[in-house]
Design a protein that fits this description.
Layout (H helix, E strand, L loop, with lengths): L1 H15 L6 E5 L2 H11 L3 E5 L14 H9 L2 E4 L6 H9 L7 E4 L16 H16 L24 H18 L4 H27 L5 E6 L3 H7 L2 E7 L8 H14 L3 E4 L6 H10 L2 E4 L12 H17 L1
Parallel strand pairs: 1-2, 1-3, 3-4, 5-6, 5-7, 7-8
Helix pairs in contact: 2-6, 2-7, 6-7, 7-11
The structure holds zinc ion.
Zinc ion binds next to loops.
């Protein structure tokens, strides 16, 4: 009897898969973390790499991050370069056999992707620095910033319609890797896709009621959002993420703000808005705050709550 009971328990453990590790998902952004967590529910573990205060533009791997990567079954990325450090880490480090990488950009048509514009000011500054270097002797091949001047703008996640696309990509991968929990993943994903559709129509009708649609943001994170809802992005304060803009660039920006009669410049909650405040005081316009959802403590509600806060900020500034 004793022996029999032991066998039965072992068999039940094997059948139920209780001994199996839950699916481990690693996201490169808190926004993507919240999408994956909504689908995962209690059936999978979701972690994020960049810490609460360091965004994807400035991220550097620490040994603890590599340990997280080593135990992940799924990596959820945005793609388009903003989390290119993950591509490098995946090439250079050991990962679990069968690891799947899913990106928000997977399956998006190339004509939907926006390019980072090459601004006149930026080319002029580059000419300056080039001539400066050549007079000093051998050009230093490392002396260039690693943010792309050209190429795709990566901030797909701020468009709720692309968020639905990203959630579908995540769902497909989770179902393929963990069919045992597929029903739960599908059910929660369907509910979340509805929630995101509701968010999309809420933003669409609120923005349609706004008197004014012209905005300036801190860094170039909102072109997809603006295109989706018909806002006019007149300019950005930080021409290159995490790089202090040059005086010449700011002069051009002020001229553009005056020409387009922009009434508000949006900073980001994560950044010290001294530069933004000074700029706004100089021109006599308002300061608002839009969250790019690149940093912060991730939670399942993080994405939708952040978008709602942003919508309130837009309504307060532009009505
Ligand atoms: Zn960004």
């Amino acid at each position: 009897m004793f022996l029999f009971r032991g066998c039965l328990i072992l068999t039940l453990v094997a059948l139920s898969g209780a001994a199996a590790e839950p699916l481990r998902i690693l996201a490169t952004l808190p926004a993507l973390h919240s999408w994956a967590a909504k689908v995962a529910g209690p059936d999978a573990v979701v972690e994020t790499l960049p810490s609460a205060s360091v965004g994807p533009h400035d991220f550097q791997f620490r040994p603890s991050d590599l340990r997280r990567l080593a135990r992940a079954n799924v990596v959820v990325m945005n793609g388009l370069g903003v989390d290119g450090w993950m591509d490098k880490a995946l090439r250079n480090n050991s990962t679990k056999p069968g690891l799947r990488v899913v990106t928000v950009a997977d399956g998006l048509k190339s004509q939907w992707i926006l390019e980072v514009p090459e601004l006149e000011v930026r080319s002029a500054d580059k000419e300056d620095s080039r001539s400066g270097r050549s007079s000093g002797g051998r050009p230093d091949e490392h002396d260039h910033h690693d943010h792309a001047d050209h190429g795709p703008n990566p901030h797909l996640w701020l468009d709720p319609v692309f968020a639905r696309h990203g959630v579908s990509n995540i769902l497909q991968t989770m179902v393929a890797l963990d069919p045992e929990h597929a029903d739960g993943y599908r059910r929660r994903a369907a509910a979340y896709l509805d929630e995101l559709e509701g968010l999309d129509s809420e933003i669409r009708s609120a923005v349609a009621r706004l008197q004014d649609r012209r905005i300036v943001t801190f860094h170039d994170a909102f072109p997809y959002f603006c295109r989706r809802y018909g806002l006019e992005l007149v300019g950005v304060v930080e021409e290159v993420p995490s790089v202090e803009p040059s005086p010449r660039y700011l002069t051009e920006l002020v001229a553009a703000i005056r020409k387009s009669k922009v009434r508000v410049v949006f900073s980001e909650p994560q950044f010290h808005p001294r530069l933004v405040r000074r700029l706004a005081e100089d021109i006599g316009i308002k300061v608002g705050e839009l969250d790019v959802l690149e940093t912060g403590t991730p939670s399942p509600g993080f994405y939708v709550e952040g978008q709602r806060r942003n919508l309130k900020a837009l309504e307060a500034a532009l009505r």
